[in-house]
Design goal:
This protein has about 240 residues and is an alpha+beta fold. The protein has 7 helices and 14 strands. The chain binds magnesium ion.
């Protein structure tokens, strides 16, 4: 029998913020901020799914979180053979070293320049359009890996959609994708690609039964590389949210 490998997204798949939970019954805090305050929770169904995966499979997270933010979850990935972080920009071997054979984000000089440029352009766009939010470059393994834009909690986030429309053509010509989900917008360079990271790991792991788990359009590429796909019923993919 083939051994089972589960590649799984984390946020809005295994955990989510309280406001996105269907009820408060039986919630367990599994995601925290840097001070240790609870931010994200698993429902009883998600807790059972996590336990089932860990009993039966090698579970590999494939997440937009960088390593620091991944460590602020308590899902039990300490024994994962590999970790895919920052939308696929980094692949770590257990022991938290970059996986052998994985090209480091700093080795993509032109993409690093695009990241620095787009951060400045986005900040300027936000000033000109007077929107409430923040823009920052996410760092993983001491390297810039993507630009994250968040709408302020109290503000409407329609402007993220507008920003995406304005930047998409230029960005996709030079770099990768712009991913929008809820009040988060991410400018991904070509090296931040969950599908490329999963493809790399499949090459190492060989013949296995692969199940992919994820909620958003940015997961679809790696889900398609798996033998089976598992998608939360209330998710960007299922709801067909055209952002
Ligand atoms: Mg997600």
């Amino acid at each position: 029998m083939l051994s089972l490998v589960v590649f799984t997204d984390i946020d809005d798949t295994l955990i989510q913020t309280m406001t996105k939970c269907p009820s408060t019954d039986g919630l367990k805090a599994l995601g925290f901020d840097s001070q240790g305050n609870a931010l994200s929770y698993a429902t009883q169904q998600q807790q059972s799914l996590i336990r089932l995966f860990k009993e039966k499979a090698r579970v590999i997270p494939v997440t937009g979180r960088n390593l620091k933010a991944l460590k602020q979850t308590d899902i039990g990935f300490h024994d994962a053979p590999y970790l895919v972080t920052s939308h696929g920009a980094m692949v770590y071997e257990n022991g938290l070293q970059p996986a052998a054979g994985w090209k480091h984000p700093l080795d993509y000089a032109d993409q690093q320049q695009h990241l620095a440029d787009v951060e400045k352009q986005v900040e300027q766009w936000m000033r000109v359009n007077k929107v409430e939010g923040r823009c920052r470059i996410i760092i993983d393994h001491d390297a810039p890996v993507y630009v994250s834009v968040k709408a302020g909690r109290s503000s409407r986030c329609d402007w993220l959609h507008e920003m995406k429309q304005e930047f998409i053509r230029d960005w996709s010509q030079h770099a990768g994708d712009i991913h929008l989900n809820g009040n988060n917008l991410a400018f991904l360079p070509v090296f931040a690609d969950k599908a490329a990271a999963v493809s790399f790991l499949k090459g190492i792991l060989g013949d296995c039964l692969y199940i992919g788990v994820g909620d958003s359009y940015s997961d679809q590429g790696f889900l398609n590389l798996c033998d089976f796909q598992m998608i939360p019923s209330n998710s960007q993919i299922v709801n067909g949210d055209k952002t």
